[in-house]
Amino acid sequence: MTSKMPKHLQNYVTDQSTHNYSFENQATWYFVLYFLKQQLTKTAHPFYLEGMEKTGLTEFNIPSIPNLSKKLKNYGWTAVPVSGFLPPSIFMEFQSRNILPIASEMRTLEHILYTPAPDIVHEAAGHAPLLPFKEYSSYLEEYAQVANKAILSKEDMELYEAIRHLSDIKEHPNSTKQEILSAETNLAEATQNMSFTSEASYLGRMNWWTAEYGLIGTSDKDLRLYGAGLLSSLGESANCLLPKVEKKLLDISCLNYTYDITEQQPQLFYTPDFLHLKNILSEFSNTLSFKKGNQFGLAKALESKAVVTVLYEDKFTSGILTDYSFDQNKLTLIFKGPLQTGTIRNSKKPEVIETLDSDIFEVSLKSYDQIVSVYGGPYSTKDFPQFDHHPPKKVEASSLSNYNKLKEPIYKILLEAKRTQNYQVSDIADIEKRILSDFNDEWLLLGLALSLQKFNFKKEPLAFGPLKTMKPRLSIDHQTCVDYLLEDYENSTSN
User: Fold this and answer.
1) What is the extent of the structural domain holding 51?
2) Angle, CA of 405, 62 and 36, to the nearest 5°
3) From CA 481, how far away is CA 471, in angstroms rounded?
4) Which runs of E-coded beta strand occur in 42-91?
5) End-of-domain residue from the set 144, 172, 201
6) In a domain, 429, yes or no
7) I want to staple 162 with a disulfide (CB 3.0 to 4.6 A). Which of 3, 32, 187, 427 is the partner?
8) What confidence category does residue 33 fall into, taking pLDDT thresholds of 50, 70 and 90?
9) Strand 360-364, strand 330-343: pairing
């Protein structure tokens, strides 16, 4: 499949290497997916759980992205493994080709409820299940086509680099407090340096309030979740429907709302149906440079300080526009060179692309109206080597400490018992004893053991009491996770 992609996109595809996942990783996936499915049965769009089945996603295994891609192919999509944050233009180019890029990293147990970096929970369990449903996926297709033409600014790329660096630092287990503080300072500076909101940034906001954090329903009283950010978050999928979160009918004003990726959202937007999303997208796209062209588009290009393409008649010029002027039927475009120019392929003329070393390009036009379109990025990445692509980092295998290596066989036994439901209660009791003896702060090990005994009511499982007493020693997120496990056990005994 990658052989059919442009070379610059192939550079971002990584090997998933499923053997890199530890059994603790698998247990983390199990925990999140098990409780998400319980929680979302009544709150997610009905498509969601049906889509989990159509895409073959289960709680028992971190999915193989190639296998997931085979399932999605039945619905006009494919998937590829990537690593971490992609540049916005690259992500949109993948999506415009009906390819879902999925970060193959698995969040650590420390970040079980939320990770600052893209991971396979969010992208496989959040985005993939809705792709089989055309009334939604066709919106994503149209959105990607528009976003792929939006003008991205130099400041956007600097902000992206700062966000990616911070997410990588926070997720890396060996990062120091000083490294995290330095990355946070760098992001704060990049944020403060944003002097204007680009077209791409506005579209990023629309993506956030729809595909990531969207709700669907006819009023704020009957809402369901469809945004991937909500569908993949145990905490926010429950909290987002509470009255404290304001719900607004989606309209074009959602573009005026910024967002913080590290916090739960104070307001969300709902759509009565997925056709409404397309209508809002169409309304906004009519205001963008790729549709308006003329002097409006050139001004946006000049402001961006990024690579753009200017279309006029059947020709184009690509580069970083630094100035332009119009005098006596002659338009002069000044670029930070080199630049690319050529004739657009049509039924009568073959496509001609030429890369020039000159910084000044003169075009003979009668008016600015002959500039039919100005859009972000070069006309051809293949023949525009100075277009800056950011190589992906390689996904490394987890390096386990000796302590973690000792836990792995226990996780393996418990997960296999969960998957097959073939085990003896007495064997699980023996495992509980070992956990309490050697790993008495390992709440997930105890929680898995507890869940295997929740229908054995003759005797309270050994894990039940210790899970309660260890809560004060845990982080707030892990206390929440223990509450999920205890509530699940108590509900099973009361039923």
Assistant:
1) 2-153+196-201
2) 110
3) 10
4) 78-82
5) 201
6) yes
7) 187
8) very high
9) antiparallel
